[in-house]
């Protein structure tokens, strides 16, 4: 990854930043989303719209506030599993082409509001497939929503297909079918492959290695949720497979040996601080290992994971790190810069975004 342009470093260092100035910078800075679940990005307003269009939905007729109470996790819960319960409240609404397309379109609209240049949206098409709505159509609907969003709001997007652990939730055949679908759509809207975790233990990540390697051969970028909760061996498995990025990686705080290895390889960690708070993986923003990782030279990007479910946006995450984890203006810009260069895009496209980023970041530093 190229170093951040020295002119941006100097511009960020040149002045004394007040907390208000850093908040303005968090909002104005061009940003990217590298770890954003499409099915976790729905606002209560969008859920209400979908519920009111579905005569069978138990959420039909509820107010936005009543829906918010059911689908937004705004306080820490005991575990990842307890957070995933919030998804179950609205998930049945996502199994139509209109709903999938709308969710992708609305996600891009939200990104534009936050000065996000590009968003990678991840999801597992087999979870949204239904009778008469096969996973190819789930993917096609999501890609239509991203495309329409780009035309209307100027924010580009790409899809990352999430394989799912464990096989007791999504079986081997469905995972194989999703991996095949991702490879077929490589370069046609799908940019990467992920392994997400339904929170119930099960197979090791290494069981998914073959599918990830096939994805790589088809030209996809690779990431994996690993080390989010204290289960052994996940980071090691991800490294063995050769992923480009790791989602969460919280257990790295106890493993300086693995941090060193990630630094050596240039593997990027996708950091989602509020998500880690709400699942109980970290106690506070101040305690989040991202500060120590950055100081150890680990490449990190900042994302929201599930902005709808957590009731947050990406500006909130940048603000939280500046307010509670001591991130300076220069370090905020660096996080966003790392994001641009971590995207699963051809080199020429990344370079193009980096030029836009540089101009936008200079202006944001100037006026914040
Ligand atoms: Zn995630």
Provide a quick synopsis of the model.
The protein has 368 residues and is of the alpha/beta class. Helices cover 51% and strands 14% of the residues. The chain has a single domain (24-367), classed as Metal-dependent hydrolases (TIM Barrel, Alpha-Beta Barrel), CATH 3.20.20.
Q: Secondary-structure blueprint of this entry?
A:
Blueprint: H1 6-13, H2 19-28, E1 31-37, H3 44-52, H4 64-71, H5 80-90, H6 97-113, E2 116-123, H7 125-128, H8 135-153, E3 156-165, H9 172-184, E4 190-197, H10 209-217, E5 221-226, H11 234-241, E6 245-248, H12 256-265, E7 268-271, H13 273-278, H14 290-295, E8 299-302, H15 307-310, H16 314-324, H17 329-342, H18 347-367
Parallel strand pairs: 1-2, 2-3, 3-4, 4-5, 5-6, 6-7, 7-8
Zinc ion binds at residues 35, 37, 196, 225, 247, 305.
